[in-house]
Design goal:
N-(1-d-carboxylethyl)-l-norvaline Dehydrogenase, domain 2; Rossmann fold; eight-stranded mixed beta sheet; 4 domains; binds 3-hydroxybutanoyl-coenzyme A; alpha/beta; 693 residues
């Protein structure tokens, strides 16, 4: 057998699962396990069976890549049925994570022993699903519905100690978990067939049902009637209202329906895309990252301070560098105030705050970067400033140090040209607030070494970020697409939509904030300054800034923020100003439906994404999706802009963009060649292969 090794210790058979990387229950493993159960179950020399596993996971669940494809026997529920009905006791020896179908398999066994480091969870909800192999029926029978439901609703795993308290496992082994499972297996065999979980009713009391119904009601209110949460409630309720086999059938029907739901498809796409980003085309696994023991950050502004906090939070000593005492004092005070806020909120202990602050050393002058293994420049966004800093760093930084710029837009090779070591210079683009946002764009210009790229990626992961390699080009990936959306907002306002309508279309789609509220929060003056520097204009946005309405910080922007309000109110003056600009531009203002606004905001972004792929600035459409999910709050269940485009249909997008381009007389809205080609071939972005930057 390929995925299971069978051994005998006297009367005990041990089936050891070895299906790297995480023992997912793909078809081959299911078939091998089914054969083991059938063989040893009928072998008179075997008294009991232990199912064990090697690797970091006991079983990470069903094989997610099989979802949506035609199922191939044996199906997981049938395998679990065979385990539960095996005439010999079956005991699970759980040495790592038991997730999803992995936990369901353990629940079908007659006994469960965990190692002290094992953990247990039903994370299906994170994929827009519910347990589909008996989890909703067996877990409540074993530990009570009021304990099981919150585990399945949050998807968060619990540690072995908690599993023991709940009665999810019979024992937690301090030492050899397989030996402990063998001991339990022998005891069960001696005692005669134990009661399968399916027949347990002791925990399903009236009090348990009442507590579960209260949780279900609360979930209905907070989950906004999400289909997965609603299906979970329905399935779990079945333990009180249906016989086991009917409850199981009802669960399966709900599960199958959810697998086909676009939300789950999107979340599964995200699961794989977030793992795929680690594979950088053209760089082999033999390229190893350099060691990073010390860091330096240049510039103690909001970004620099936030980046320094990322290092401190990861336990890496960091020097925060400024030119003048007042600037460094301000920067350190800002960092201390953010930590203090976490202490007040109770999310950080005072001891941890002190530890983290002690890891940040304030310093004056670039010489303080001399012993750093990585230097991140977060100074003023101006090429001259950056070149001066990198020129100076070239003489100061130790050989092999990674020299990174946090620039949002500037050309990395021009910055690198100020040094004699372009092989070590790249972009590490953090997103604001840097200590919170997960996204890190690792900008890989021509001339940088593979080792430097791999080091930046590994460092990003150590900092708790989601690092994505992008090519060098104005705005890289995220901000370049954001700019396409900003231009689309401006076009919509001039054509007749109002700020609150534009925002409502996007929040209705699932974003937390629309583009106008977001600009008001970030400060409208930021985009204004950047446009002026590039000789660009945006009539509405410029006029709002010229009036001094920079957003929340000035009490008004696209919206009004009376008395420091966080969410804006409609502003008749802004609406009048927009109407005036429309008139000046000869636009015939008309009303827009929400769907139309949405497509006018998102289609141009996808079009820009297609150009970004054509130019090799992003290697995969999935990378673009990961960027938008982690840096711009794109709703995960929509899968990211490129996945969303596939779900709409690229032929539809092409037609809509052509119509917009004609109506607006704007050639930039013409569909990108890649978009046209894929649409003509009846394909989606998902059909593209990764390219080398
Ligand atoms: N199916 C298919 N592939 C899986 C998988 C799964 N359930 N779980 C992990 N993988 C793959 C990953 O894609 C990755 O592949 P790659 O190396 O080719 O990119 C590899 O295994 C390693 O995964 P991670 O990088 O995530 O490894 P970590 O060590 O960081 O994490 C883990 C391990 C905690 C097991 C994590 O992978 C995880 O959370 N997996 C998903 C668990 C899950 O959601 N299970 C439920 C599945 S649905 C189900 O069981 C339905 C059932 O009720 C019928």
């Amino acid at each position: 057998m390929e995925t299971v090794r069978l051994a005998r210790h006297g009367e005990i058979a041990i089936a050891t699962i070895d299906n790297p990387p995480v023992n997912a229950l793909g078809q081959a493993l299911r078939a091998d396990l089914a054969r083991v159960i059938a063989d040893v179950g009928s072998d008179p020399a075997v008294a009991a069976i232990v199912i064990a596993a090697v690797g970091r996971a006991f079983i990470a669940g069903a094989d997610i890549s099989e979802f949506g494809k035609p199922p191939v026997a044996p199906l997981l529920p049938d395998l679990l049925d065979a385990i539960e009905n095996c005439p010999k006791p079956v005991v699970a020896a759980i040495q790592g994570v038991a997730l999803g179908g992995g936990l369901e398999l353990a629940l079908a066994c007659h006994g469960r022993v965990g190692s002290a480091s094992a953990s247990f969870g039903q994370p299906e909800i994170k994929l827009g699903l519910i347990p589909g192999a008996g989890g909703t029926q067996r877990l409540p029978r074993l530990i009570g519905a009021a304990q099981a439901f919150p585990m399945m609703l949050s998807g968060e795993p619990i540690p072995a100690s908690r599993a023991l308290q709940l009665g999810l496992v019979d024992d937690v082994a301090d030492g050899d978990v397989v030996a402990a499972a063998m001991a339990l297996a022998r005891a069960l065999a001696a005692r005669g067939a134990p009661e399968p979980v399916r027949d347990m009713t002791a925990r399903l009391t009236a009090a348990d049902r009442e507590a579960f119904e209260a949780q279900a009601l609360a979930a209905t209110k907070t989950s906004g009637e999400m289909p997965d949460a609603m299906a979970l409630i329905e399935a779990v309720r079945g333990v009180f209202t249906l016989p086991f086999t009917e409850g199981l059938a009802a669960e399966r029907a709900l599960f199958v329906k959810l697998v086909a739901d676009p939300r789950s498809r999107a979340l599964r796409h995200v699961f794989f895309a977030e793992r795929e980003i680690a594979r950088v085309p053209g760089i082999g696994a033999d390229v190893k990252p350099r060691a990073i023991a010390k860091a330096a950050v240049i510039g103690a502004g909001t970004m620099g301070g936030g980046i320094a906090m990322c290092f401190a939070n990861a336990g890496i000593p960091v020097t925060l560098i400024e030119q003048e005492q007042a600037q460094i004092d301000n920067g350190m005070n800002r960092v201390a105030a953010i930590y203090e806020m976490s202490v007040t909120r109770g999310s950080l202990s005072p001891e941890k705050r002190d530890e983290r602050l002690a890891l940040i050393t304030p310093a004056l002058g670039l010489d303080a970067a001399a012993d750093a293994d990585v230097v991140i420049e977060a100074a003023f966004e101006e090429m001259g400033v950056k070149q001066q800093i990198f020129g100076a760093l070239d003489a100061i930084a130790k050989p092999g140090a990674i020299l990174a710029s946090n620039t949002s837009y500037l050309d990395i090779p021009t910055i690198a040209a100020a040094t004699k070591r372009p092989q070590d210079v790249l972009g590490m683009h953090f997103f604001s607030p840097a200590n919170v946002m997960k996204l890190l764009e690792v900008v890989r210009p021509d001339g940088v070494s593979d080792e430097a790229v791999v080091t930046a990626m590994a460092l990003g992961r150590r900092l708790g970020k989601v690092p994505v390699v992008v090519g060098n080009g104005f705005g890289f990936v995220g901000n370049r697409m954001l700019e396409a959306r900003t231009r689309a907002t401006e076009r919509l306002l001039v054509a007749g939509a109002l700020p609150h309508e534009v925002d409502a279309a996007l929040t209705g789609f699932g974003f937390k904030m629309g583009p106008c509220a977001m600009a008001d929060l970030a400060g409208n003056d930021i985009g204004w300054r950047s446009r002026k520097a590039r000789g660009k204009t945006a009539a509405v946005a410029d006029a709002i800034c010229e009036a001094g309405w920079f957003g929340q910080k000035t009490g008004r922007g696209y919206f009004l923020y009376p008395d420091g309000a966080r969410s804006g109110l409609r502003d008749p003056e802004v609406e009048a100003l927009i109407a005036r600009i429309s008139e000046e531009q000869g636009a015939n203002r008309r009303s827009f439906k929400s769907d139309e606004i949405l497509s006018r905001l998102l289609d141009p972004m996808v079009n820009e994404g297609a150009r970004i792929l054509e130019e090799g600035i992003a290697v995969r459409p999935g990378d673009i999706d990961v960027i938008w999910l982690n840096g711009y709050n794109w709703p995960a269940w929509r899968g990211g802009p490129m996945h969303w485009a596939d779900s709409v249909g690229l032929d539809i997008l092409v037609a809509r963009l052509e119509a917009q381009a004609a109506e607006m007389g704007d050639a930039t809205l013409e569909p990108a060649p890649l978009l046209r080609r894929l649409a003509a071939e009846g394909k989606g972005f998902a059909d593209l292969k990764a390219t080398t930057i």
